[in-house]
Amino acid sequence: MTIREIIKRDIGVKVEGVVKVFDHAALASEFREYVVTDKIEEELKKIFDTFTQVSDTLRRGGRSRDVMGMWVSGFFGSGKSHFAKVLGYLLQNDDLDDGSGERCIDVFLKHLADTPRGRDIRLRLGEIKQTTQVKTLAFEIRSRQSLSNPVSVGEILLSEFYRCIGLSENFIVARIERRLSRRGLLTLLEGTYEARFKTPWRCAEGRDDLMTVRRRLAEILPEIDAAEYPNEREAKRSLEDAFRHEKITPEGIADELVAWVDEQKVLGGRVQHLVFVVDEMGSFIGDSGDKISELNSLAEMIGNKGKGKVWMICTSQLDLEKVVDRTNFQPALVGRLNARFDLKPQLISDEINKVVAERILKKHPSEEVKIQALYQSGYLAQLADLKASRHLGTITERSFIDCYPFLPHQIRLAQDIFEAIAGFRVSGGVRSMISVVMEALQDVADDELGAIVSFDMIFDAVENDLLSQEYLGASGVRSIRESFERIPGTPIDPSRVLRVLWLLQKVPWVPRIPETLAKLLVRDLKTEIPPLREKVEQTLDRLQEAGYVARDEATGEWKFLNEKERTIEQTIQEMVRPGGPKSISVAAVRRTSQEMTKNDLATKRRLANFTVIYGATK
Predict the structure, then answer these.
(1) CA 318 to each of CA 20, 83, 281: distance values in angstroms, whole numbers, following the listed order
(2) Which of 145, 195, 242, 465 has the fewest CB atoms found within 10 Å of its own CB?
(3) How many CB atoms lie within 10 A of CB 605?
(4) What whole-number distance in Å separates Cα of residue 250 and Cα of residue 300?
(5) Residue 437: which H helix or E strand, with range?
(6) Distance between CA atoms of 521 and 493, rounded to whole angstroms?
(7) Radius of gyration of the chain (CA)
(8) Adjacent-strand bridge partners of 560
(9) How far is residue 488 CA from its own chain's centroid?
(10) Could you tell me the pTM of the whole model?
């Protein structure tokens, strides 16, 4: 039986690493594959406790707090976008649209542990399901920037709101539509516009064509709403004033959003909420004092006027305090912004073994007994101890079954390495680790049971990213690939040894000795370590002769040499290699040292006779 046959998911289907908060098509798989770690469960409990408390106060007619925001932070690939998306659609409790008839809350409940905290979250989700009606608007803020005002947080927020409720993204046109809609005249506008100009109202050539829409509206508005626009001249003047003078203010935005919430018809005593999920708000603000000031004003107005009716869930790589620090925002106002964003979940890539086991490596239950037999065969004892000074976890039967064809400590070690070299392309986050595990899994998918992922395959999974000068660079990766041709006849492919050695060099707490390298190069559980270790030693010796690696005589650890270090090492090796054109014989070394001692060493005999007088003299 092959590894592919025991894995539950289709290994050939790529896992989408980047979660798009606005992509509703992927919602079903993103909910079904979501893994709730202890940290996520802890954050969710705080959020749902606060949300249900605010909602319950509104339902009872009490005066709610001004809280309106959640600031979700976490480094690159930590899963913050996935978390924010899941949270937003949990509150809305959307249909998953995958033919199952299940809604978001129904699926999410299956992920919760049967613990006091998990049971509390179940109760809160039950309250949300029964007592609230939520409209969630999710978008990535940079992708929705306005060409007319690309730096305005408020304009982007309002434009997205209009778009999601079916109005024009231009706030002037949208406000006309809203006024007509309240009077029951919007449908008449759409019909009249299409009949007069032979163009549908809701299209790029209709309401979105700002070059023509003002003139055309002036022609037809008197026919639609004579009380407001008695004639074409008045309509033209009114539209000109609106397009020239009407402004967007934080207070105006808050008024519009709260008014929309209050207009919604809810059944069964439910409470209406409007929730914005704004991805990458932190990077959009950057170091702009104007943007953080606008966000602060928006938060204050939405909090004061909405009292929990309108919420914003923002994501950022940095926590709110650090974002504020970068903008030199007025210290006196920081506390007020913090108070509005009362909930600040900070995501970390913890329990990575659990995440990849659930999302990628989940097995068919009926096949687990075969992996159990591998565990009980006794081969794992020789692979478990890497002599690391930091604990990488214990290989238990359950952890082995969950992580196979990886060994549990391999995944944790890979995460630590990627965190140590974290940059724009590589990180130890959930996203990067899922991608790495999937790539390596595909390499061994058709191998028979008993095969395992070796650590050089981890390198292969990120090789394209390592081409960046931030890491190895193209020449560094190429030199590793070409080592097989340059050093023929080694017991082990030298490029495999170099790959593992380069990775281990990023974590000083794992000894870079032949035994460790041998254990990480194993591709079959039945492999005997002592013979493999000897082959690794022989390969390392050949690599040292070629100047690829160097050995620390004091510790016995090996080092991967970069290009500059390699040039020096190759020169040294040429000098000490017997019979080489640049080699130096022992006799030559002895003769040169004797001459240096004779000619250059300062001795008493060679110094002039002199005295130094000190102290009292006469």
Answers:
(1) 19, 15, 10
(2) 195
(3) 5
(4) 9
(5) helix 430-444
(6) 11
(7) 34
(8) 549
(9) 41
(10) 0.78
